[in-house]
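Ticket #4471: complex job returned nothing on first submit. Input attached below:
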Amino acid sequence: MTVSRRWLEEFVSLRGIEDERLYEIFNSIGLEVESMERYDIPGGVVVGKVLSCEKHPDADKLNLCRVDVGEEEPLQIVCGAANVRDAEYVAVATVGTVLSEDFEIRPAKLRGVESFGMICSSTELGLPPMEDGIMILDESIGKLVPGRPLNEYEAICDTRIELELTANRGDCLSVMGVARDLAAALEREVERFEYRLSRPMQKGIARELSLHSRGDIEVDIAYAMAMRSDSGVNTLIRFRLAQCGEYSEDAVEAVCRYTMQATGVLLRAYDADALRNDDGRIELHLERDENAAVRVLCKGESISVVGAWQEASLKATAESAEILFELSYIEPRSVVDAVSSVGMKTDSLYYRSSRGSEPDIEKGLLYMEASGERSCKCSFSADPMTYRQNRKERKVAIDPEELNSIIGENISRSKIHSILKYLGFELHNGSTSSRLVVTIPPWRHDIVNIQDVAEEVLRIVGIDSIEARPLQIMEKNRLSQEAHRYIVRRDFRHRAAAAGFYEAVTYAFCRKSTLRDYGFETVQEGLELLNPIVEEFDTLRSTILLNLLDAARRNISYGKRRIALFELGVVFDRGRSESEKLTLLWCGDKEDPSVVNHGKPESVDFPFFVRKLGAIVGDFELRSCEAKNALMHPWQSAEIVKEGRVCGYLCKLHLQAAQDYGLPDTYIAELDFDALIPGVKQAKAVSNYQGVYKDLSVLVERELPYSKVADILDDMVEPLLKRFFPIDIYEDEKLGERKSLTLRLFLQSDEATLSDADIERVMGRVLELLESGCGAKLR
Amino acid sequence: MENMEKKIDEAGTLESLEKIRVEIFGKKGMLAAEFAKMKDIPGPEKKAFAEGLNRLKAQLLERFERRHAQLEAEEMQSRMRAEAVDVSLYAPNGVKGALHPVKDTMDRIVDYFTALNFSVESGPMVEDDFHNFEALNLPKNHPARDMQDTFYFSDGTLLRTHTSPVQIRTMMKRKPPIRIIAPGSVFRRDYDLTHTPMFHQVEGLVVDEKAKVSFANLKWILTDFLHEMFGEVDIRFRPSFFPFTEPSAEVDISCIFCGGSGCRVCSRTGWLEVLGCGVVDPNVFEAVGYEDVSGYAFGLGVERFAMLIHHIADLRSLFEGDIRLLEQFR
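Support reply: We reran it on our side without changes. The output follows.
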């Protein structure tokens, strides 16, 4: 919403309030100032009266003007604008005027003719863009005296203020509405706007128009007729409309926009002739249709729906001789409900009506008549034709103590009274009881209950004057399950970073076809995203891996050679159920080039990636597994088993996928976060007897996975065998189809020092089991 | 004798010192030879001779041990010299990864509120109209719904546009008093230089008995919180509007880039908007079936905080796993 200081002053006195203070007040009462701009017209720009205007002898597009600027001799000025030919008063930048940093007016010769000054357009003066060509002045901005500096004309030495309104403040979608709020903040009265038509039309409107209605229809509506004259729009209105980006050269359109901008009353204009029936009369019917929309019908057709739209073909045009103006008000809720229940088309006025336009249509009428008569010499019908609804007053009871408890400050009863009065609330004498009953101003449809009223009091008192107070609370254990998960999540993230991974945050979206191509599940039909923003995010992701691969590809293009990324985030299954994954990717080099690796770091490999993972999630087992999707390498994929539970997989990236994404060697892993949340561990007693490490080399089938060997020894019931792990694998031609596997076993007793016989017995059993279990032979 | 002392002192290595030790103290050494002379010494002089010899032995021994310790220390020193490393070659660059600045900022925010005895809560990203809008006093067709362009699913559900539905879910499953924050991802259908379809919010909600929780309490905690996050900044509360709070306010901090004098980042206003907050609207309490309670709520965008705190200019780069950005946070 754009207002201006001078325009506001039509409705409230701003005496003694500088622009800076105005800026502060607006912000403090919740009308956020988006921008504020003061128009400073340079001192040398004066009013000029064009005495004559002839074509330049040598240039078709130039005009040779003689302009009176209050000096003895008129100035000769060459002007290129076409509209100077009809101009009487113009703005002249005299010789010596500095219009901008690098633009000083000097005597010049244009195509051989001398020119002493420049006739200016509005933008050359730093004003908003108005008419094509030069700015035309008239006495709407004050008495025009040739030679008088333009910056003495207060009407255009204005400050433009752009306010960012919140959705509830439809009442401030007008200069008058903003002035009303400002008046309350300043504790000043709103100026009453009065106007009497100076030359009303002879015939009364009733002779031409009748308005029929059936039953109680909840709108206010008024019609006025007007005869258009040929004159255009005056300087002041053009200037103000240009300020708020509503500039129009059409007189009727300009009056409508100007009135709405000033008062907030909905205003439409019709070509009266188009509405007349065969008898030359206009018969209008107000009707509530089945969707509760209020229609205006003429000759059996809807000419408008109040607050929503107007039949475009009936709109007044520049050719319309007689105009029918329609001013209206409808409750925002009813027009919004009516419009959205059938998806009705709406026009630009709907923005106002849906947020709450000004209910006092009389104010709109007066302002329209004033600006129409003054600006474009329209003559209006003496009295309007109106329909008024039977509006109920809305009241709310307020307990000042409760109001203060909402704000948390002791604001006196009289202060509350005064604020509400200035805001337009009507106070009912509740002085005897503690409760106060107030009538809500009709333009404040957003106010319903005591908290709404508390907000009004708070914003006028100013949040700055409220003392901040800590809340007294009861101690309580608030370590909820989610709080605990948050801590665990953070723990894993810190460990991943410590292990060398960078944390990525990517969108929870993915491209459906890509998910399918790589064999991942997608959200099922019927649960799909209806309005994706771009094709590459047309569904919810079921894996984070593809997002990380995209990120890896980007990093490759940035020249990165070691790309280690992780993300702990949410994925969605077919049924859109959410689960959390810890997803990791290591692509390219193991480390940055350095003196340690002589500038040639090795490529990431399986054991390296596994070690990195171990540093993050702790001990786990690896079991070779089938590829579950097309990202997994068929011969380097493993399930991650933690405490007997499969909690995800890690693998080398399938070479095809690596090729698709343009990546060097890459390892990936995706783990279920829930499976990683650690439980409470219980310690076992540590034996103080000396243990012994024994190495055992056996020959096994080359294809035999180590996990088979481990399973056999895991199943063995032998209290002395505490631990075992592989330490070497050896293959060569002499071994043929077999390989040599060396295990290291740790033997220890909880009760005594081990004897050689004990050790021999256990080692014998181990070998026996391996022989029978997987055909192992001692090497 | 003096000769021996000199020999000990002049031994250059532990090996040569060992040779001298054998020469002096060995079975066939000088001292042994001297002691052997005892048997030829007449009785009365024997004692004095023995004493003299023992004194000499002690002197030599002390001298030897001193020299031995010296040489040992020298040898260790030279071994260490041989181990010299140009430490400046080995700065561990790129060994550690880094946390994402948005997540890290979220952690800091969560830390503040958990230190003030807030609990952490979460909720689903796929939400329904009731929790995301209706219960938050955003009825269908409300103009404020326009503020949030929503992703919808074919079954009528949606991606939550804010973390506020967690308020509703928490209140519906728990009795007051409530004291929670809800960090999480939210989604809006907006994608340009300053908007991403997903971003992060932290929501706060405090509910207690009627007339207990006030706007003044909200002002206290948010003022303290913003000082914690941004240091010594000026803080400004501006009345504003959110459907689910009344009174509502937006909170600004004085621009941390220009100190309030006006710059490009603050659009020359000197202020940066960082938070929205307010006293919970009675319609919200009604929607969850709470009676006779009072409360406040607030919400903030984590990306905005992270970008301001860490001077990150490009919002979209935050979602691209861009190592050039992330490695700066090692």
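The mean pLDDT of chain A is 92. Closing as resolved unless it happens again.
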